[in-house]
Amino acid sequence: MLEFFQHSFNTLSHGFIGYIIPFLFVLTIVVFFHELGHFLVARWNGVKVLTFSLGFGPELAGFNDRHGTRWKISAIPLGGYVKFFGDESEASTPSSAALEGMTADERKGSFHHKRVGQRAAIVAAGPIANFILAIVIFTCLFTFFGKPSTTAKVDSIQAGSAAEKAGFQSGDIIKAIDGKVIGSFSDMQRIVGTKAGEQLAFSVKRGDATVELKGTPELREVKDSFGNVHRLGVLGITRATAAGEVTTERVNPAAAFVLGVKETWFVVDRTIAYIGGVFTGREAADQIGGPMRIAQISGQVATIGLTALIHLAAVLSISIGLLNLFPVPLLDGGHLLFYAVEAVRGRPLSERAQEMGFRIGLGLVLMLMVFATYNDILHLASS
Questions:
Q1: Among candidate residues 200, 227, 194, 218, the one with its CA nearest the CA of residue 379
Q2: What is the rounded distance in angstroms from the CA atom of residue 269 to the CA atom of residue 195?
Q3: Which residues contact 173 (CB under 8 A, 6 or more apart)?
Q4: Which residues contact 235 (CB under 8 A, 6 or more apart)?
Q5: CB count in 10 Å sphere of residue 30
Q6: Distance of CA 362 to CAs 356, 372, 375, Å?
Q7: Distance CA 339, CA 331 (A)
Q8: Which one, of 66, 13, 15, lies nearest residue 302 by Cα?
Q9: 12, 292 in Cβ contact below 8 A?
């Protein structure tokens, strides 16, 4: 057991510099825009913002703006928060004693004295900002770098694979799956990868003829170029890309925006499908990672280039936006759940009920962090 943890420590420490700088770059962008969403909508609704912090714990550096907000960088760079006037803690829990003692002017700037719709908008603005950030990043990447494309051609077929059973032949070109037009080999991989165990209808160009085939992708563990294991649906066909076969399609800003929205929705859809699969037993929970996994992936992606790292920031932004929308007290989704109950009841839940909710939420979040860290250690030990 000692050797196990020593190996994990050595694996992380050897790549510390290579991991930590890309990790902080990616996480800082995502957290900043999340908190900026809260901040801007709060300001628009007349709420006084006391603190805008990147990170938790002791302050490393900071300044006060002309509105009295303390902007700061804190020692533990694993998140951030915006603290409003009237908040008792960074989790935006109210202090009843402080709220009751406020003057009429102070209540105008208090978050907890705003209408329930205003409070909900302020809370929802954080995750929404994450989705907007992702769309903007994807749009810029498509606009300035184009869309790489390779024909969905079948060069070889693995023996005994789903593709062989379906009747694919070398030289086939996949034109559509379940009626959806396929523009590239990566488009085909995305659909197949998410449809393990589901029968798909393929429209295939074979010479001058069009052939209709049916195949069911098999769930397999696939290693990427960095050795990370992913569970994906696989047909068992390969594409041998020759020089000049990879083309880059130029995309105008309007089309790039549409592609950016589609890309963001794809990540949202896949994330929700994976989480649902974990609860139904179709997916393994060992793919859930924490800060160490994110740091490792950030370091690996950084070796490809800045563009790939920015793409990762978009994907991480979507993930954090979704996570914060979970109806768990302590997260943004938990606050929104409380506000929905308040809107229905016509009055907020009792202070005791909210306190119990936040304690339960804290417990759930801590358990998730422990589980994710455990997965990270196992992943590092096996790499």
A1: 227
A2: 12
A3: 151, 152, 153, 154, 204, 205, 206
A4: 161, 162, 163, 166, 168, 192, 215, 217, 218
A5: 27
A6: 10, 15, 20
A7: 13
A8: 15
A9: yes
d(CA 193, CA 88): 46
Beta bridge partners of 72: 53, 62
DSSP 236-287: -EE--PPTT--EEE---HHHHHHHHHHHHHHHHHHHHHHHHHHHHTSS-GGG
Residues in the chain: 383
**Side chain identity at residue 251, one-letter code:** V
35 catalytic, yes or no? Answer: yes
Give the neighbor-by-neighbor strand order of the sheet with 173-177: 180-181, 173-177, 200-206, 209-215
Which of 35, 218, 263, 283 is flagged as catalytic? 35
- Would you say residue 285 has pLDDT above 80? no
Distance (Å, whole) CA 1 – CA 318: 36
The pTM (predicted TM-score) of the whole model is: 0.81
The one-letter amino acid code at 274 reads Y
Closest Cα to residue 259, out of 250, 270, 247? 250
Q: What is the pLDDT of residues 94-126, one digit of tens each?
A: 666 666 667 777 788 888 888 999 999 999 999
In whole angstroms, give the CA distance from residue 15 to residue 296: 8
Task: Specify the amino acid at residue 34.
Answer: H
Rounded alpha-carbon distances, angstroms, from residue 184 to 163, 200, 214, 304: 17, 17, 19, 22
